[in-house]
């Protein structure tokens, strides 16, 4: 099966990154391959039909992984090591729910700390990111996940 998704411009939107990650995950389960090709430029005179104009509301967060910096709407966001690691872990795995124990093992590197440690770090991270749109959502009875409309861009090379 071939699925063609036109991606234009230099930067791929967070929604396109999420879509590509979901497709890769599905393909890996069935042992297929995914190739990403640059879309041909769209002619300015040619109207584009049914192109969604909706951009998620709320702040944009950029994670510059090489320098371990976080930018909230272009302004430096002072995050602790664990807050940065937690946000990066969730941003790199959108649409997945993680239990507190899974987050402790993946981000902290151990499971011996109390699971409430995750709650404290999520609460502090939410405060620093601002309360107008929660970027990390709680899945009651399970754990935490990145919000579907979160605008987080992970840039490995800044």
Give a description of the structure.
The protein is of the alpha+beta class and 158 residues long. It contains four helices and seven strands, in the order αβββαβααβββ. The strands form two sheets. A four-stranded mixed sheet has the order 3-2-1-7, covered by helices on one side. A three-stranded antiparallel sheet has the order 4-6-5. The longest helix is centred in the first third of the chain and has 16 residues, at 14-29. It starts with 13 loop residues before the first helix and ends with a strand.
Keywords:
158 residues, alpha+beta, 4-stranded mixed beta sheet, 3-stranded antiparallel beta sheet, 7 strands, 32% helix, 16% strand
In short, what is this structure?
The protein has 158 residues and is of the alpha+beta class.
For the report, how would you describe the main beta sheet?
4 strands, mixed
Low-confidence stretches: 48-53
Tell the overall outline: globular
Total count of helical runs of at least 4 residues: 4
Order of helices and strands: HEEEHEHHEEE
Mean pLDDT: 76
Measure the end-to-end span.
Answer: 35 Å
Number of strands: 7
SS class: alpha+beta
Helix content: 25-40%
Strand content: 15-25%
Major β-sheet strand ordering: 3-2-1-7
Radius of gyration: 18 Å
